[in-house]
Amino acid sequence: MPCKVIVGGFWGDEGKGKIISYLALKDKLDVCVRTGSVNAAHTVWYKGKRYALHMVPAAFLHEKCRLLISAGANLHVAKFLEEVDATNVKNRIGVDSQASIIEEKHSNQDKTSAHLKGLGTTGWGVGPAIEERVRRTAKIAKDIPELQPYLTDVATETNNAIDAGKKVLLEGTQGLMLSLFFGTYPYVTGRDTSASAICSEAGVGPTKVDDVLIVFKAFMTRVGAGPMPGELTKEEAAKRGWFETAAGTGRERRSAPFNFELAKKAVMVNGATQAALTKLDALYPECKSTREYDKLPKEAKQFISEIEKQTGIPVVLIGTGPEALDIIDRRK
Ligand code: IMP
Ligand code: MG
User: Fold this and answer.
1) With a 6 A CB cut-off, is 189 part of the ligand 1 pocket?
2) Most buried of 20, 50, 316, 320 (most Cβ within 10 A)?
């Protein structure tokens, strides 16, 4: 801290929501800025309750955290209002006046456009909404009556907070392998998902960032079409306890073992300085809910060392269960 960017290392669903909710509570974040759009669901578990957040920043658990939706984001009005209600954050959430709006027609276009067929998009309409923004015909937040109480200048608020030494987190969505620039094109999302793009969407320059925290899951998953090295059959995934369904769309996730080459590339392109590793308990069930590194079995420690050796960055946070606080924190 003060300014940390969080990004996904693979195809999204690495557990960014969990890591952000932990940091929010543990580090008492002052500001959390969400980027991206409604296609990405960030799952947060706290005191047995599950939240799958498509719009509200995942740091909402810390009641003093200012929550912001950036100018580069695409906002789904109904989903935003629904989540603001469910998380009770009305008095501390702000939306940039220039965030663009994703509409029902975009979702229809997403599901029916010939050029998107076969990509396995989430169907929310994010690609078509971005196309509309690029055509300069999109609605933006300041055009929407229901959003008037929330409007703010997110870049100014965020930079002021950083300059005042506050703890600011820029919440990336999805993962590098879904990046429009660096992912498995054309099987990608409609935007770059790297740390630089997250900064750009938030309106924070690269000199203001202290850390880039990349989140990896202990195995890889992917929803939608496109290549995935080492992909397992559904039966094999289930046998290993790796079979998942998507938090947002309920679709089945494909899975594969952790890939060190992809991890190295993701660390490089993101300029990552630290890593978080989630779901270690899926690989080593005896780790479940452990909060002490020393209690990990030897093989789990070896796996972590191997990630550190190959990527050249420390694994500072290790997820051992779904709850926000099921974390081994190795930071000083
Ligand atoms: P779109 O972003 O809805 O256009 O979908 C493009 C590709 O990105 C599809 O393969 C989706 O499954 C994938 N995708 C988009 N958002 C997420 C996410 O948050 N998690 C996982 N996959 C995603
Ligand atoms: Mg997700």
Assistant:
1) yes
2) 20
At 307, list the tokens. Answer: 């990630």
Residue type, 2: P
Distance CA 125, CA 106 (A): 4
Q: Is the CB of 178 under 6 A from ligand 1?
A: yes
Closest CA to 17 of 270, 307, 246: 246
Which residue, among 214, 179, 217, has the nearest Cα to 313 in the 3D structure? Answer: 214
pLDDT in tens, 139-188: 999 999 999 999 999 999 999 999 999 999 999 999 999 999 999 999 99
- Give me the helix-helix angle, 195-202 and 154-163, nearest 10°: 110
The yes-or-no verdict on residue 129 having pLDDT over 90 is yes
Provide the strand spans (E) within 21-71.
31-34, 42-46, 49-53, 66-69
**Cβ 163 vs Cβ 30: under 8 Å:** no
Annotated catalytic residue, options 42, 54, 62, 106: 42
Tell me how far apart the alpha carbons of residues 71 and 73 are, in angstroms, rounded to a whole number.
5
Nearest residue to 234 (alpha-carbon basis) of 258, 255, 257 = 255
The Å distance, Cα 170 to ligand 1 centre, comes to 20
Strands 274-278 and 315-319, bridge-based pairing = parallel
| pLDDT tens, residue by residue, 220-242 | 999 999 999 999 999 999 999 99
